[in-house]
Design a protein that fits this description.
Length: about 90
């Protein structure tokens, strides 16, 4: 009987730890924090920073390539014997 009781306790502990780790990753439990202070919005009017869009950005075209996208890659010159260099 001692062997089943010796196995049951670590099994229960593993189950509780597994459930606790699962619950900590759950996004819906963020609402149940009793110590969280509610943030009050700052007083005043809200205005759009760029009401007609960001100046200088054309949304009708795709993003451009970086300036170094066509930079040449310096490869090591092949050896005269055609074999790869040894370390």
């Amino acid at each position: 009987m001692k062997s089943s009781s010796g196995l049951l306790r670590p099994l229960r502990l593993a189950l509780v730890l597994g459930l606790a780790l699962t619950a900590t990753g759950c996004e819906t439990l963020e609402k149940f924090n009793p110590f969280e202070e509610k943030e009050k919005p700052l007083p005043g009017e809200r205005h759009a920073v760029f009401p007609t869009g960001v100046p200088g950005v054309d949304y009708s075209t795709g993003p451009g390539q970086p300036t170094n996208a066509n930079a040449p890659i310096d490869l090591p010159a092949p050896s005269a014997s055609g074999a790869t260099s040894s370390r």
